[in-house]
Amino acid sequence: MIMRDGYAALALFVLASGIGSHSASAADMAPFVPHRAVYDLTLGDSTAGSGVTGVTGRMVYELNGSPCAGYTQNMRFVTVMTNQDGAETVSDLRNSSWEEADAKKLTFASTQYQNDKLADSSQGDALRSKGATPVVGVDLVKPAKKRVSLPTDIYFPMQHASTLVQAAKTGVKMFTANLYDGSEKGEKYYLTNTIIGGKYGTGAAASLGTFKGSDKLAAIASWPMTISYFDAGKDHEDQTPSYELSFRYFENGVTSDLKIDYGEFSIKGELKELTFLDPGKCPAKDPH
Question: What total of structural domains would you count in the chain?
Answer without folding.
Answer: 1
